[in-house]
Design a protein that fits this description.
The chain is built from four helices and 27 strands. Strand 5 and strand 6 form a beta hairpin. Strands 1, 12, 13, 14, 15, 18, 22, 23 and 27 form a nine-stranded antiparallel beta sheet that branches. Strands 2-3-4-5-6 form a five-stranded antiparallel beta sheet, with no helix packed on it. The chain has a five-stranded antiparallel beta sheet with strand order 20-19-21-24-25, with no helix packed on it. The protein is mainly β. The longest helix has 6 residues. It binds beta-D-glucopyranose. The site of beta-D-glucopyranose (BGC) has 10 residues, from strand 24 and strand 25.
Length: 371
């Protein structure tokens, strides 16, 4: 299986987009900034709606096995709910996706403190991370949406003026591509991702415990009680973390496994198996299939070294989603392609340091089909 997955490589610009893009209003933030909603449609009827607040994907319509379109991402109806929300529905995450232990790290001998917002630790870029900022939008000729955010030196405790550009492209192959670019004027740490919660049956339609999940990873990172990786790389073989051959999360999520208890379910970073790759080459990280009502399949391709597979363990029904639907525990799953959590404090993990003159450049694709 691993060998088969390895052979599925792709060069980036293979699938061209012929999408259309339209802009409308999505209201104003509490401090008066206008937020726009962009609707991108491809030639096959697939549609993505993205707001400039947090660069969040607020709706994603893909075909089921009968060709019927359904919205498969969790989200809210209004800007005020996105602003108040604590679940990061659909949002771009930065500067540092996932956790930094105790909100502290040292870079080039200098100690930095970033706000602690998740128990003792820093999560997803701070109190007001990239998910709570208004991005500047530009429509590209191929119907793609380019979003730019300039994060100031010292914002949320991170050093350096950082310029981030994220481009969302919808291709006629029913692929949603997210391309992240960033530069800095001082050394900093960076780990950008997107925090969409998917339910391939349709947002708000029950839980995702029966989805068939394949993760192309022989190892994962065990965590401590604060969900910080211990530093150990553990083989998935013989554990409930083995998703190499397609298993449903529901099958083993309640097993008496210490790591499942700590995560309150699956909330861990898997280390992706990756072949030797050249620039701009992606490989299959995850495949999720809803074999029941919809037949929808989502494949995740990335050039990132890790993926956080999170089964919506902390959703508890207090979030009312689009159309008033209640999101209970496991109403959605996230597949956050990323560098490993707490890398700034783990010299043995691949580096997340970005220096002046370097270009952060990474791509993730979500490819949709149905059978
Ligand atoms: C984290 C979870 C967290 C969720 C929402 C995920 O990326 O791993 O622990 O609850 O984001 O904040």
């Amino acid at each position: 299986m691993r060998f088969k997955l390895f052979s599925i490589l792709t060069l980036l610009p293979l699938t061209m987009s012929a999408a259309t893009i339209q802009k409308s209003d999505f209201g104003k933030t509490a401090d008066g900034a206008a937020v726009a909603l962009y609707t991108i449609k491809n030639g096959k009827g697939m549609e993505a709606k993205i707001i400039t607040y947090g660069g969040a994907i607020v709706s994603l319509k893909t075909p089921d096995r009968t060709g019927a379109m359904g919205d498969i991402v969790l989200g809210y109806d209004t800007l005020a709910e996105y602003a108040a929300g604590k679940s990061y529905f659909g949002a771009l995450i930065g500067r540092y996706g996932n956790r930094i232990a105790h909100g502290k790290f040292t870079l080039d001998g200098k100690a930095y403190s970033v706000p602690v917002n998740n128990g003792e630790n820093a999560l997803h870029g701070g109190i007001r991370g990239f998910d709570k900022r208004v991005w500047t939008a530009r429509e590209l000729p191929d119907g793609a949406l380019e979003l730019t955010y300039k994060s100031k030196d010292g914002e949320e405790g991170y050093p350096g003026n950082l310029a981030a550009t994220v481009t969302y492209t919808l291709t006629d192959a029913n692929t949603l591509r997210i391309h992240y670019i960033a530069t800095t004027d001082k050394p900093t740490v960076l780990n950008l991702t997107n925090h969409s919660y998917f339910n391939l049956k349709g947002a708000g339609d029950g839980d995702i415990l029966g989805h068939l999940v394949t993760l192309n990873a022989d190892e994962y990172l065990p965590v401590d009680a604060g969900l910080i990786p211990t530093g150990e790389l553990r083989l998935v073989d013989g554990t409930p973390f083995d998703f190499r051959h397609g298993r449903t999360p529901g099958e083993r999520i309640s097993q008496p496994d210490q790591q499942l208890k700590l995560g309150n379910g699956y909330d861990h970073n898997w280390i992706l198996n990756r072949p030797e790759m050249g620039p701009g080459m992606l490989s299959l990280a995850a495949r999720v299939e809803e074999t029941g009502v919809s037949g929808r399949i989502m494949e995740v391709y990335t050039d990132q070294p890790g993926i956080q597979f999170y089964t919506g363990n902390f959703l508890d029904g207090t979030d009312k989603g689009k159309g008033g639907k209640v999101y209970n525990q496991h109403a959605g799953f996230c597949v956050e392609t990323q560098h490993y959590p707490d890398s700034p404090n783990k010299p043995s993990f691949p580096s997340t340091i970005l220096r002046p003159g370097q270009k952060y450049d990474t791509t993730t694709e979500f490819r949709f089909s149905a059978k």
